Each structure stands twice: as structure tokens, then as C-alpha cells.
Predict the structure.
Amino acid sequence: MMVMFVFTMMVMIMFTMMIMVARAVVVTMMVVFAMMAHILENYNILYIFYYTYYKNIIN
């Protein structure tokens, strides 16, 4: 009985985390589409920014 309760709690937590991640992805994509004109204008600046950002994460 206790094992089933723990298993159900784990499934609920995983389901909630998946919903939160999906919501964050949708919001991020909406922001990206809204700023598409600015991204196309300042493409070089954004490329340098993302390059340094990922480089800092890796190192």
C-alpha cells in the first residue's frame, strides 16, 4: 500500500514538472516570435551573446 502511494506521488510530481517545462517552452517561443524582427536586425549581436553564454555554461 505504501509503495503505491509513493509511486503515485512520483508520477504526479513528474507530470507537474512536465507541464511546467512545456509552459515555459511555450512562453519562450511566444517571446521569440514576438521579437523576431529585432532578432533579424541584431542577428550578429545575439549570435555573440549566445556564443559567450553557452561557452560560460560549458566551462
